[in-house]
Specification:
The chain has 613 residues and is an alpha+beta fold. Helices cover 50% and strands 18% of the residues.
Length: 613
Amino acid sequence: MEEARREAELLITQIDALGDYVKEELRPSLFRFFKESNIKEDFILEAMSTTHIRTKVMRRFKTKFVDYDYRRVSLKPINPQHLPNDFERKILKNFMQNPEIKRWENIVDFNKDKYLVVIKPIHVEKECLVCHGKTKDAPKSLLKIYPRKEDFHWKVGDLMGLEAIYVPLERWLLEIKHIAITTFISGMLTVILLLITIEGVFWTIVGKPIKKLTVHFRNIISGNVPLSQRLEVERGDEIGELLQSFNQLANHLFEAQEAIKTYAQTLQTIFNHITDPLALVNLNCKVEVSNRAYQEWISQKKGPVFNTECDPLKADQNKTCPIALIRRVIETQQPVSEYISSTEGGYYYTHLYPVFDQTGKVIKVVHYVEDVTEKKKIEEQMAITEKLAAIGQLAAGIAHEINNPLGGIILCLNNILKTSMDEKTKNQHIELINQGLSRIQNIIKVLLDFSRTTELNLRVCEIKDLIENVLKLINYYLKEKNIKLKIELEQKLSPVYLDSNKIEQVLLNLILNAVDAMENSEEKVLTIKVYHKDGKMFIEVSDTGSGIPPHVAEKVFDPFFTTKPLGKGTGLGLFISKSIVEQHGGKIWFTTSEKGTTFVVEIPLEGRRIHEG
């Protein structure tokens, strides 16, 4: 590039010198000569036109140096042969848009050959306007050669055209290519020889002992050689230190392997002795690892365990079975726990915990099952005990409710038997007797429904009906205790999916506790409030008692904890209520102050579906 630039600069300097000579010496001398000699000729193209002379000289130059080229062009030339080509028009446009550019230089491809192109702009000078100005001022001899009718509208300083030198780079490129190929071949031969030498030395010093180490390592992996077998170390250099370090590492791994085996055996023993079924299950419902209890349940076809492959994503979301629970774990990425009952009468609490990969995707689940059949029976017995205690507490009121219609029935019967009366009066007495019997029958039905032992029987219920059933049992008791009752039901309450009998038991327990809490209160107001919020139903039972002390508040849901006198409470009411509400997928809590206590029961509107079978 430097050589090409130097040649281009020499050519431009020589051509500029030739043009300056014509412009500054030859042309003025000829003008004076014509004037002094009264010669009619006023312009000689071959001697006075700098463009003509430069072009002719460079044509002679090209006869020897064919690949070189010189161009002097203008957008409005006197000689039409000096019009620019497309490439030169682009350069002229660039000079017009950027007048500060005094020189343009670049490598350009022409006919698959590369040229260094150096271009300079030509600006109008005062001397140029003699020929390139107005027609009337132009030399007559010039107009005879290149006639024109229109004036040039150039001004001093305007961009008139450009001159370009095209210097071929092929010679230098071939030379560089030859040098590069020679250097590359020599270098490659040297590098290959060097690599062969280095590899020979490297194999002797490093490769051979590393190969020995690799073979030993592969034998350990394949099991042909124990980790405890050591390699012989015959050298004291870095390779020897490497072999020695490998021996130490192998020994450490051997000790760790033995410790892991012992630890794994201990874990397997613990795992197998867990009495509840426990297993690791993949997303195809296939059991990968399981303890002895889980295997026994599979062989006995007992409880909710996995025994066949399946696709959880095809499971019904509304069912509560292990397959559907896996789908819920995959979709929520949260642990899932549900109660599941079987047709054999078993009752199980099954838990599924997600196992994630590094990206946070669920890849397996840990399945743990508790057989809570006996626990449920105990809870049912406790619930029955609490029901009986509540019935005993209400016994006087229920007896009064039955006794009133019973007295009316006896009176009507005596009148019919002992008094002569017409048919109309007799029918009126019989109607009163029927009404009294219906009232007694209704009270006994509610009492029997409340006291009977039932499985969790979920169905769509109206909460208003549940409250009315409970009030039928407790109305007399509330009147006896001088309790003012306030019922606040939200309009258009939606039906809720629950076990009506068990929720009635919860309401009765909360109401009885509220009545007892207001034993010594001046104003005794029992408020039952029901409303919806965020897809859940809330039941609030509030009293105007003195509140629950802090030391008592933390124990109110504990079994057998009571503050009532001996014989008045079992301490199971709130414990059973909490268990029933949680079976429905809900929550129970309370707020308390010196002005009273409010217990809140929260139950999802759709409830928790329990799968039978």
